[in-house]
Amino acid sequence: KILQAISSSSSSSSSQSSSSSSSSRSSHSSSSSSSSSSSSSSSSHSSHSSSSSSSSSSSSSSSSHSSHSSSSSSSSSSSSSSEHIPDTTSIQELVTEASLRRHITSLQAVADMSGGTRAMGTVGYENSLHYVTRHLNLLAPRLTWQFQNFTVRYNKPDPSSPPTMSTTAPGGAVTAAEEGTDFLLFSQSGFGDVVGAKVAIVSELGCLSEDYADVRLEAGKAGGPVFALVPRGECFFVDKMRLARDAGAAAVGIYNNAEGLFRGTLGSTDPQSHIPAVSLTRTKGSALAALKVQGGAVSVSVRGSFVETATANIIADVAGEGDAGSV
Protein backbone atom coordinates (compact mmCIF):
# COMPACT_ATOMS: atom_id res chain seq x y z
CA LYS A 1 0.00 0.00 0.00
CA ILE A 2 2.93 2.33 0.72
CA LEU A 3 4.38 1.51 -2.67
CA GLN A 4 1.07 1.96 -4.42
CA ALA A 5 0.58 5.39 -2.88
CA ILE A 6 4.13 6.44 -3.71
CA SER A 7 3.82 5.17 -7.26
CA SER A 8 0.55 6.96 -7.95
CA SER A 9 1.50 10.17 -6.16
CA SER A 10 4.90 10.28 -7.82
CA SER A 11 3.39 9.80 -11.27
CA SER A 12 0.76 12.49 -10.80
CA SER A 13 3.15 15.00 -9.30
CA SER A 14 6.35 14.15 -11.13
CA SER A 15 6.75 17.55 -12.77
CA GLN A 16 5.94 19.52 -9.64
CA SER A 17 8.12 17.20 -7.55
CA SER A 18 10.94 17.92 -9.90
CA SER A 19 10.55 21.65 -9.54
CA SER A 20 10.00 21.57 -5.80
CA SER A 21 12.95 19.24 -5.50
CA SER A 22 15.09 21.80 -7.29
CA SER A 23 13.89 24.46 -4.90
CA SER A 24 14.63 22.27 -1.92
CA ARG A 25 17.99 21.32 -3.27
CA SER A 26 19.06 24.87 -3.83
CA SER A 27 18.10 25.92 -0.33
CA HIS A 28 19.58 23.02 1.63
CA SER A 29 22.62 21.32 1.99
CA SER A 30 31.50 2.13 -1.64
CA SER A 31 33.08 -0.13 -1.74
CA SER A 32 34.46 -3.24 -2.76
CA SER A 33 37.31 -2.95 -5.19
CA SER A 34 36.44 -5.96 -7.31
CA SER A 35 34.54 -4.09 -10.01
CA SER A 36 36.59 -2.88 -12.94
CA SER A 37 34.23 -0.07 -13.78
CA SER A 38 34.48 3.41 -12.27
CA SER A 39 32.93 3.49 -8.83
CA SER A 40 31.70 6.14 -6.49
CA SER A 41 32.14 4.74 -2.75
CA SER A 42 30.19 4.39 -1.51
CA SER A 43 27.10 6.01 -4.96
CA SER A 44 28.18 5.95 -5.11
CA HIS A 45 30.59 6.08 -0.17
CA SER A 46 32.09 7.60 -1.56
CA SER A 47 33.17 10.09 -0.02
CA HIS A 48 30.83 9.00 2.60
CA SER A 49 27.96 6.88 1.62
CA SER A 50 24.52 8.43 1.94
CA SER A 51 22.24 6.43 4.19
CA SER A 52 19.07 8.03 2.92
CA SER A 53 17.00 6.25 0.33
CA SER A 54 14.35 7.14 -2.18
CA SER A 55 10.76 6.16 -1.69
CA SER A 56 11.27 3.31 -4.09
CA SER A 57 14.16 2.11 -1.98
CA SER A 58 12.01 2.33 1.11
CA SER A 59 9.40 0.35 -0.75
CA SER A 60 11.88 -2.27 -1.77
CA SER A 61 13.06 -2.48 1.82
CA SER A 62 9.48 -2.88 2.89
CA SER A 63 9.09 -5.76 0.48
CA SER A 64 12.20 -7.40 1.87
CA HIS A 65 10.91 -6.97 5.42
CA SER A 66 7.59 -8.53 4.48
CA SER A 67 9.37 -11.46 2.92
CA HIS A 68 11.37 -11.96 6.12
CA SER A 69 8.21 -11.77 8.20
CA SER A 70 6.63 -14.40 6.00
CA SER A 71 9.56 -16.69 6.59
CA SER A 72 9.47 -16.25 10.37
CA SER A 73 5.71 -16.64 10.53
CA SER A 74 5.86 -19.82 8.54
CA SER A 75 8.40 -21.35 10.89
CA SER A 76 6.01 -20.82 13.79
CA SER A 77 2.80 -21.71 11.96
CA SER A 78 1.78 -24.01 14.78
CA SER A 79 1.10 -20.96 16.96
CA SER A 80 -0.06 -18.50 14.28
CA SER A 81 -2.92 -18.63 11.84
CA SER A 82 -2.18 -18.39 8.12
CA GLU A 83 -4.13 -15.14 7.84
CA HIS A 84 -1.24 -13.34 9.58
CA ILE A 85 1.30 -14.43 6.97
CA PRO A 86 1.66 -11.46 4.59
CA ASP A 87 1.32 -11.96 0.88
CA THR A 88 4.22 -10.07 -0.69
CA THR A 89 3.21 -10.74 -4.29
CA SER A 90 1.11 -7.60 -4.63
CA ILE A 91 3.84 -5.52 -3.03
CA GLN A 92 6.50 -6.86 -5.37
CA GLU A 93 4.32 -6.03 -8.36
CA LEU A 94 4.22 -2.39 -7.28
CA VAL A 95 7.99 -2.05 -7.59
CA THR A 96 8.29 -1.09 -11.24
CA GLU A 97 11.27 -0.19 -13.37
CA ALA A 98 9.65 3.11 -14.33
CA SER A 99 9.16 4.12 -10.69
CA LEU A 100 12.69 3.12 -9.73
CA ARG A 101 14.17 5.04 -12.65
CA ARG A 102 12.10 8.11 -11.79
CA HIS A 103 13.45 8.23 -8.24
CA ILE A 104 17.01 7.38 -9.29
CA THR A 105 16.91 10.21 -11.82
CA SER A 106 15.58 12.62 -9.20
CA LEU A 107 18.27 11.66 -6.68
CA GLN A 108 20.95 12.05 -9.35
CA ALA A 109 19.59 15.55 -9.98
CA VAL A 110 19.99 16.22 -6.26
CA ALA A 111 23.66 15.22 -6.52
CA ASP A 112 24.20 17.27 -9.69
CA MET A 113 22.86 20.40 -7.99
CA SER A 114 24.84 19.75 -4.80
CA GLY A 115 28.43 19.61 -5.97
CA GLY A 116 28.20 16.15 -7.55
CA THR A 117 27.63 14.19 -4.34
CA ARG A 118 24.98 13.09 -1.84
CA ALA A 119 27.56 11.92 0.68
CA MET A 120 27.03 12.25 4.41
CA GLY A 121 27.74 15.70 5.77
CA THR A 122 27.16 17.43 2.43
CA VAL A 123 24.42 19.64 1.00
CA GLY A 124 23.50 16.73 -1.28
CA TYR A 125 22.77 14.49 1.70
CA GLU A 126 20.49 17.09 3.28
CA ASN A 127 18.66 17.54 -0.02
CA SER A 128 18.23 13.76 -0.27
CA LEU A 129 16.55 13.74 3.15
CA HIS A 130 14.13 16.43 1.98
CA TYR A 131 13.35 14.48 -1.18
CA VAL A 132 12.48 11.33 0.76
CA THR A 133 10.42 13.07 3.45
CA ARG A 134 8.44 15.00 0.85
CA HIS A 135 7.29 11.72 -0.69
CA LEU A 136 6.64 10.12 2.69
CA ASN A 137 4.40 13.05 3.65
CA LEU A 138 2.12 12.14 0.74
CA LEU A 139 1.22 8.96 2.65
CA ALA A 140 0.19 10.62 5.93
CA PRO A 141 -1.58 9.82 8.19
CA ARG A 142 -1.34 6.13 7.23
CA LEU A 143 2.43 6.34 7.42
CA THR A 144 4.49 8.17 10.02
CA TRP A 145 8.20 8.90 9.95
CA GLN A 146 10.89 10.36 12.16
CA PHE A 147 14.53 11.39 11.93
CA GLN A 148 17.14 9.30 13.71
CA ASN A 149 19.74 11.94 14.57
CA PHE A 150 23.32 10.98 15.40
CA THR A 151 26.89 12.23 15.15
CA VAL A 152 29.58 10.79 12.90
CA ARG A 153 33.35 11.32 12.73
CA TYR A 154 35.25 11.51 9.48
CA ASN A 155 38.27 12.95 7.68
CA LYS A 156 37.46 16.14 5.80
CA PRO A 157 39.94 17.34 3.14
CA ASP A 158 40.87 21.01 3.19
CA PRO A 159 39.08 22.59 0.18
CA SER A 160 41.62 25.42 0.10
CA SER A 161 44.53 22.98 -0.28
CA PRO A 162 43.76 20.25 -2.88
CA PRO A 163 45.76 17.02 -2.70
CA THR A 164 48.94 16.89 -4.74
CA MET A 165 51.07 14.09 -6.12
CA SER A 166 54.36 14.17 -8.01
CA THR A 167 57.20 11.90 -9.08
CA THR A 168 60.92 12.58 -9.03
CA ALA A 169 63.15 10.91 -11.60
CA PRO A 170 66.64 9.68 -10.62
CA GLY A 171 68.13 12.76 -12.30
CA GLY A 172 66.00 15.08 -10.16
CA ALA A 173 63.31 16.05 -12.67
CA VAL A 174 59.93 16.48 -10.95
CA THR A 175 56.65 15.69 -12.73
CA ALA A 176 53.35 16.70 -11.17
CA ALA A 177 50.41 14.31 -11.47
CA GLU A 178 47.02 15.85 -12.24
CA GLU A 179 44.14 15.31 -9.85
CA GLY A 180 41.10 14.05 -11.73
CA THR A 181 43.24 12.79 -14.62
CA ASP A 182 46.02 10.73 -13.02
CA PHE A 183 44.73 10.29 -9.48
CA LEU A 184 41.82 10.90 -7.09
CA LEU A 185 41.80 11.09 -3.32
CA PHE A 186 39.92 8.29 -1.56
CA SER A 187 37.07 9.39 0.65
CA GLN A 188 38.26 9.06 4.27
CA SER A 189 41.91 9.20 3.20
CA GLY A 190 44.38 9.99 5.91
CA PHE A 191 46.35 13.25 5.90
CA GLY A 192 50.02 14.06 5.72
CA ASP A 193 52.98 15.11 3.58
CA VAL A 194 54.87 12.13 2.19
CA VAL A 195 58.00 13.39 0.43
CA GLY A 196 60.45 11.36 -1.65
CA ALA A 197 58.89 7.97 -0.94
CA LYS A 198 60.34 4.81 -2.43
CA VAL A 199 57.87 2.79 -4.51
CA ALA A 200 57.09 -0.72 -3.24
CA ILE A 201 55.12 -3.02 -5.52
CA VAL A 202 52.48 -5.21 -3.90
CA SER A 203 52.17 -8.70 -5.37
CA GLU A 204 48.95 -10.49 -6.30
CA LEU A 205 45.88 -8.38 -5.44
CA GLY A 206 47.11 -7.09 -2.11
CA CYS A 207 44.47 -8.81 -0.01
CA LEU A 208 46.87 -10.85 2.15
CA SER A 209 49.66 -9.77 4.46
CA GLU A 210 52.23 -11.80 2.51
CA ASP A 211 51.47 -9.72 -0.61
CA TYR A 212 53.23 -6.78 1.08
CA ALA A 213 56.69 -8.34 1.35
CA ASP A 214 58.26 -5.64 -0.85
CA VAL A 215 56.69 -2.92 1.32
CA ARG A 216 58.24 -4.45 4.45
CA LEU A 217 61.56 -4.82 2.64
CA GLU A 218 61.68 -1.17 1.55
CA ALA A 219 60.39 0.08 4.91
CA GLY A 220 63.21 -1.81 6.64
CA LYS A 221 65.84 0.08 4.67
CA ALA A 222 67.13 3.53 5.54
CA GLY A 223 66.34 6.36 3.19
CA GLY A 224 62.84 7.70 3.56
CA PRO A 225 59.18 6.68 3.48
CA VAL A 226 57.50 4.03 1.33
CA PHE A 227 54.66 4.40 -1.18
CA ALA A 228 52.77 1.10 -1.64
CA LEU A 229 51.55 0.47 -5.20
CA VAL A 230 48.56 -1.90 -5.06
CA PRO A 231 46.36 -3.33 -7.85
CA ARG A 232 42.59 -2.96 -7.62
CA GLY A 233 40.47 -6.07 -7.16
CA GLU A 234 38.94 -8.74 -4.90
CA CYS A 235 38.96 -7.07 -1.45
CA PHE A 236 37.92 -3.76 0.07
CA PHE A 237 40.00 -0.63 -0.43
CA VAL A 238 40.26 -0.11 3.31
CA ASP A 239 41.75 -3.61 3.72
CA LYS A 240 44.48 -2.78 1.21
CA MET A 241 45.18 0.52 2.96
CA ARG A 242 45.44 -1.16 6.38
CA LEU A 243 47.70 -3.93 5.11
CA ALA A 244 49.97 -1.37 3.43
CA ARG A 245 50.04 0.77 6.58
CA ASP A 246 50.77 -2.19 8.84
CA ALA A 247 53.60 -3.26 6.52
CA GLY A 248 55.23 0.15 6.94
CA ALA A 249 53.91 2.25 4.04
CA ALA A 250 53.45 5.99 4.58
CA ALA A 251 51.00 6.30 1.66
CA VAL A 252 49.20 3.98 -0.73
CA GLY A 253 48.10 4.15 -4.36
CA ILE A 254 45.55 1.66 -5.76
CA TYR A 255 45.66 1.50 -9.55
CA ASN A 256 42.72 0.54 -11.74
CA ASN A 257 42.34 -2.81 -13.50
CA ALA A 258 40.61 -1.08 -16.42
CA GLU A 259 40.98 2.19 -18.29
CA GLY A 260 40.16 5.43 -16.51
CA LEU A 261 39.95 6.56 -12.91
CA PHE A 262 37.59 5.41 -10.17
CA ARG A 263 36.25 6.85 -6.94
CA GLY A 264 36.30 4.92 -3.71
CA THR A 265 35.98 5.20 0.05
CA LEU A 266 37.92 3.76 2.96
CA GLY A 267 34.86 3.92 5.22
CA SER A 268 34.47 5.87 8.44
CA THR A 269 35.64 3.25 10.95
CA ASP A 270 38.64 4.65 12.82
CA PRO A 271 39.49 7.25 10.12
CA GLN A 272 42.19 8.82 12.30
CA SER A 273 44.38 5.76 11.71
CA HIS A 274 44.28 6.04 7.90
CA ILE A 275 47.30 6.97 5.79
CA PRO A 276 47.12 9.11 2.62
CA ALA A 277 45.43 7.01 -0.08
CA VAL A 278 44.81 7.74 -3.76
CA SER A 279 43.27 5.88 -6.67
CA LEU A 280 45.29 5.77 -9.88
CA THR A 281 44.67 5.06 -13.54
CA ARG A 282 46.14 1.85 -14.86
CA THR A 283 48.53 3.93 -16.96
CA LYS A 284 49.75 5.85 -13.92
CA GLY A 285 50.17 2.61 -12.02
CA SER A 286 52.40 1.24 -14.78
CA ALA A 287 54.43 4.45 -14.78
CA LEU A 288 55.03 4.20 -11.03
CA ALA A 289 56.07 0.56 -11.38
CA ALA A 290 58.63 1.66 -13.98
CA LEU A 291 59.74 4.46 -11.65
CA LYS A 292 60.64 1.87 -9.01
CA VAL A 293 62.94 0.11 -11.46
CA GLN A 294 64.53 3.45 -12.36
CA GLY A 295 65.06 4.34 -8.71
CA GLY A 296 62.75 7.36 -8.63
CA ALA A 297 60.49 8.59 -5.84
CA VAL A 298 56.89 9.66 -5.19
CA SER A 299 55.55 12.55 -3.13
CA VAL A 300 51.96 12.91 -1.93
CA SER A 301 50.43 15.71 0.11
CA VAL A 302 46.94 15.54 1.62
CA ARG A 303 45.69 18.32 3.89
CA GLY A 304 42.57 18.16 6.01
CA SER A 305 41.16 17.64 9.47
CA PHE A 306 39.31 15.13 11.59
CA VAL A 307 35.78 16.42 12.23
CA GLU A 308 32.48 15.45 13.78
CA THR A 309 29.16 16.28 12.15
CA ALA A 310 25.48 15.78 12.91
CA THR A 311 23.51 13.71 10.42
CA ALA A 312 20.33 11.63 10.31
CA ASN A 313 18.57 8.56 8.98
CA ILE A 314 14.84 8.39 8.24
CA ILE A 315 12.68 5.73 9.90
CA ALA A 316 9.13 5.25 8.57
CA ASP A 317 6.34 3.12 10.07
CA VAL A 318 2.93 2.08 8.81
CA ALA A 319 0.19 0.69 11.07
CA GLY A 320 -0.59 -3.01 10.74
CA GLU A 321 -3.92 -4.23 9.37
CA GLY A 322 -6.64 -4.50 12.02
CA ASP A 323 -4.32 -3.78 14.92
CA ALA A 324 -3.48 -0.20 15.82
CA GLY A 325 -0.65 -1.40 18.02
CA SER A 326 1.28 -3.22 15.28
CA VAL A 327 3.50 -1.70 12.65
From TrEMBL:
PA domain boundaries: 199-288
UniProt feature, compositional bias: Low complexity: 7-82
Disordered, as annotated region: 1-89
InterPro entries per the UniProt record, alphabetical: PA_dom_sf, PA_domain
Source taxon at top rank: Eukaryota
Protein name: PA domain-containing protein
Source organism of this protein record: Hemiselmis andersenii
